[in-house]
C-alpha cells in the first residue's frame, strides 16, 4: 500500500515542470520560511518569544529523536529499492524518519498550540513539505505520516511539560510566600 501511494504521487514528478519547481523549492527551501517566522515571533512580544522558545526546544528534541532512529533503524529510501522519479539529490541514509517533516511539524505544532491562525498556515506548509518529499522521490508516505506524528507529539509534550513546570513553580512560590516551608 505504501509503495502504491508513493508511486501514485511520485509518477507525476518530472512530467509537469510547473509543479516540479514548487515541489523542489518547498523541499529544499521551506526551512527558511520557518526560520523567518520564528525570528519575527521572537521580536514581536513576550508571549510569542515563549512560543518561539518552545518551537526551538521541540525542534532540538525531534533532531535528537531523528539521530537515535538513524542509529537503530534503517529503511531504504524509495529510490534505493525501486525505479522512481528523483528530482533532487539525496543522502543514502534511512528514509524513516523524514527530518524535513519532523522539524516543520514540530515548529508548526508549537505555534498552533498558542497562535491558531498562524499555526494553521504553518501546518499547511508542513503538509506541503511532507508531500514534496514524496514528490521528489525521497520518502514513502508512511515515513511522512510517522514523522508528522512524532514532530507534533514532541511539541505537545514540550508544551505540557512547560505548563506543568509553571504550575509547580507557582505552587512552590505560594508555599514560600505564606511561610509554610519553614
Summarize the structure.
This protein is elongated. It has 182 residues and is mainly alpha-helical.
Q: Topology, pairings included?
A:
Elements: H1 2-10, H2 17-44, H3 46-72, H4 78-81, H5 99-112, H6 116-135, H7 141-177
Helix pairs in contact: 2-3, 2-6, 3-5, 3-7, 5-6, 5-7, 6-7
Task: Give an overview of the whole structure.
It is a single chain. The chain is mainly α and 182 residues long. It has one domain. The chain is 76% helix and 0% strand. The longest helix has 37 residues, at 141-177. The mean pLDDT is 89.
List the keywords.
elongated, mainly alpha, 182 residues
- The helix/strand class is mainly alpha
Count of domain modules = 1
Question: Element order, helices and strands?
Answer: HHHHHHH
Distance between the terminal alpha carbons, to the nearest Å? 64 Å
- Average pLDDT works out at 89
Low-confidence stretches: none
Count of helices? 7
Shape, please? Answer: elongated
Fraction of residues in β-strands? under 5%
How many strands appear in the DSSP assignment? 0
- Let me know the largest β-sheet: none
Radius of gyration, taken over Cα atoms and rounded to an integer in Å:
20 Å
Helix content: over 70%
Amino acid at each position: 500500500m505504501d509503495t502504491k501511494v508513493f508511486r501514485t504521487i511520485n509518477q507525476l514528478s518530472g512530467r509537469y515542470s510547473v509543479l516540479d519547481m514548487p515541489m523542489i523549492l518547498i523541499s529544499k527551501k521551506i526551512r527558511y520560511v520557518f526560520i523567518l517566522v520564528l525570528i519575527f515571533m521572537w521580536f514581536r512580544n513576550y508571549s510569542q518569544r515563549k512560543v518561539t522558545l518552545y518551537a526551538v526546544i521541540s525542534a532540538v528534541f525531534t533532531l535528537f529523536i531523528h539521530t537515535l532512529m538513524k542509529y537503530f533503524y534503517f529503511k531504504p529510501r524509495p529510490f534505493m529499492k525501486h525505479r522512481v522519479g528523483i528530482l533532487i539529490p539525496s543522502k543514502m541514509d534511512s528514509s524513516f524518519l523524514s527530518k524535513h517533516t519532523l522539524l516543520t511539524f514540530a515548529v508548526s505544532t508549537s505555534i498552533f498550540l498558542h497562535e491558531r491562525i498562524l499555526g494553521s498556515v504553518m501546518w499547511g506548509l508542513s503538509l506541503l513539505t511532507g508531500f514534496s518529499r514524496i514528490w521528489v522521490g525521497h520518502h514513502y508516505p508512511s515515513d511522512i505520516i510517522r514523522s508528522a506524528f512524532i514532530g507534533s507529539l514532541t511539541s505537545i509534550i514540550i508544551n505540557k511539560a512547560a505548563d506543568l513546570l509553571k504550575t509547580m513553580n507557582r505552587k512552590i512560590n505560594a508555599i514560600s510566600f505564606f511561610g509554610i516551608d519553614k
